[in-house]
Design goal:
Largest sheet: 7 strands, mixed
Number of helices: 12
Strand content: 15-25%
Structural class: alpha/beta
Order of helices and strands: HHHHHEHEHEHEHEEEHEEHH
Low-confidence stretches: 6-12
Mean pLDDT: 88
Radius of gyration: 20 Å
Distance between the termini: 44 Å
Shape: globular
CATH class of one domain: Alpha Beta
Number of strands: 9
């Protein structure tokens, strides 16, 4: 007789196999589709998700309501629909990114304020970049890897493991080095080594605190917890810190992907505005990053793909 534990294990294995098969099929099939068909498909997926609702859509709505308290319910509905379409556009682009040429990537990305970080990378130094869940991080990183320097980042370990390894292989192919958040060496130690080795863009999505060691900051007028890693890494190694926001905008004819292009906007180099211990300086630096994010979130709300709890009042 098969034990319940054995049945559960077999079910989990089958589910993992189906997940891996579906992931690989989507990865290959979407690259073969004509661009308008692929993006149209993901728009429909987004629209269906909005109609069905569910926890993630409702969380997006709640986050947008905090970011844009002045809009009425009809406008909020439109924002949520646009936000889900933007979120699915990111996935469509991620699946299709390995088939894009360097010229296609460059024509799909506009970068502003990158002169100063470029001066550091051209000298063989590392720069630390705080990014949020805005726009297309992968496309922005692919552009940076080709135009500034190879990119190092930290990523949550996905399950099943084979999907995570596919994900790592994909990002390695576009000159991104992935440090797993769990299941490997201490990620912060690896980041310090990368910063001291130089010649890299260390881009860290830090607008959510995944370790419970983050700091509280003001984000769009509400308290939120964010990871302090980029600030501490910069303070410890001397690598310059920037905040880069990423958002979508309609693309001129002949540019972009699926009618949109990705805009990267770098802040000026961030310096602590306070004296005192490292903790106080890190808190101030992350608040500066949150201020930059807040401006983009309010101006380009649909590019903010925050389908999780981020505000302190929602975490309890």
């Amino acid at each position: 007789m098969t034990s319940s534990r054995g049945v559960a294990s077999a079910t989990r294995d089958l589910r993992d196999q189906l997940t891996v098969a579906g992931f690989k099929l989507g990865w290959r099939a979407l690259r073969a589709l004509p661009e308008p068909v692929a993006y149209g498909l993901f728009n429909r997926i987004a629209d269906v998700a909005v109609r069905r609702g569910g926890n993630r859509v409702e969380r997006l709505r709640a986050n947008y309501r905090k970011a844009r308290p002045e809009v009425d319910e009809a406008a909020l509905d439109s924002l949520v629909r646009a936000g889900m379409r933007s979120y699915m556009r990111y996935y469509c682009e991620a699946f299709r990114l390995p088939s894009l040429s360097r010229d296609q990537i460059n024509r799909a990305v506009v970068s502003r304020g990158d002169d100063e970080p470029r001066r550091f990378t051209e000298k063989g130094e590392a720069v630390v970049v705080f990014v949020g869940h805005l726009g297309n991080f992968d496309l922005a990183a692919a552009w940076a890897a080709g135009s500034l320097a190879p990119v190092t980042t930290v990523a949550e370990r996905l399950e099943p493991e084979e999907v995570f390894q596919e994900f790592v292989a994909f990002r390695n192919a576009i000159d991104m080095d992935i440090i797993p958040l769990t299941g490997g060496e201490d990620p912060f130690t690896a980041l310090v080594q990368a910063a001291r080795a130089g010649g890299r863009v260390i881009a860290l999505a830090s607008d959510r605190d995944l370790t419970s060691n983050g700091v509280e900051v003001d984000l769009v007028g509400h308290r939120a917890r964010m990871a302090k890693g980029p600030a501490v890494l910069s303070l410890l190694t001397g690598a310059p810190l920037y905040c880069a926001t990423v958002h979508y905008e309609s693309a001129p004819k002949g540019y972009g992907l699926g009618g949109y292009r990705t805009v990267i906007e770098f802040s000026a180099r961030l310096h602590p505005r306070v004296e005192g211990p490292t903790a106080a300086k890190a808190q101030d630096l992350i608040q500066q990053c949150a201020d930059h994010l807040s401006m983009t979130i309010r101006q380009h709300t649909s590019s903010w793909h925050m389908l999780q709890r981020v505000f302190v009042e929602d975490l309890s």
